[in-house]
Amino acid sequence: TILPAIILLFIAFPSLRLLYLLDEINEPLVTLKTIGHQWYWSYEYSDFMNIEFDSYMIPTNELNINNFRLLDVDNRVILPMNSQIRILVTAADVIHSWTIPAFGVKVDGTPGRLNQTNFFINRPGLFYGQCSEICGANHSFMPIVIESIPTNFFIKWIMN
């Protein structure tokens, strides 16, 4: 029984080290705080002064011809491409889940807890997601839209 226990230790220690290294974030360019509410998201760019907004789904009767029903929002999250992004996720009322399938990111927002993850956007465009937690009757009406733009346009956007 001692030999299998030693073998398991030799397997466990490198795995724990790798798990720790995967969770480390290497100097992100932008930190975005996301707060889940019923039935919208609030965003705060904590690296910059007083940039915060709420993001609601656009009602069906107000959609433009080029908008997606149940997926488009009135205020998109603008992030620079080719840079490391840290996202902090929490919730104000019930458990939400901030999910962007194109990035492979799914982070639960729990009231009273701050979860974090990071991602790297390597191309410009629009990326869509939704709350993927059963957080209430209208949880599927909590869309997320990320707009990735070049860094120089992001700096101009932040200045305005």
Can you walk through the features of this model?
Helices cover 19% and strands 39% of the residues. The protein is of the alpha+beta class. It has a five-stranded mixed β-sheet with strand order 3-2-1-5-8, with no helix packed on it. The model has no long low-confidence stretch (mean pLDDT 89). It is globular, with a radius of gyration of 19 Å. It contains two helices and ten strands, in the order H-E-E-E-E-E-E-E-E-E-E-H. It has one domain: Immunoglobulin-like. The longest helix is centred in the first third of the chain and has 22 residues, at 2-23. This is Cytochrome c oxidase subunit 2. One of its GO terms (biological process) is ATP synthesis coupled electron transport. Its EC number is 7.1.1.9. GO terms for molecular function: copper ion binding; cytochrome-c oxidase activity.
Number of domains: 1
Rg from alpha-carbon coordinates: 19 Å
Count the beta strands. 10
Number of helices, counting only DSSP H or I runs of 4 residues or more: 2
Q: What order do the strands of the largest sheet run in, or round the barrel if closed?
A: 3-2-1-5-8
Main β-sheet, in a few words?
5 strands, mixed
Distance between the termini: 66 Å
- Give the CATH architecture: Sandwich
Q: What is the arithmetic mean of pLDDT?
A: 89
Quaternary state of the chains: single chain
Order of helices and strands: HEEEEEEEEEEH
State the low-pLDDT regions, or none.
none
Strand proportion, as a percent range, falls in 35-45%
Q: Can you tell me the CATH class?
A: Mainly Beta
Class based on secondary structure composition and strand pairing: alpha+beta
Determine the fraction of residues in helical runs and give it as a percent range: 10-25%
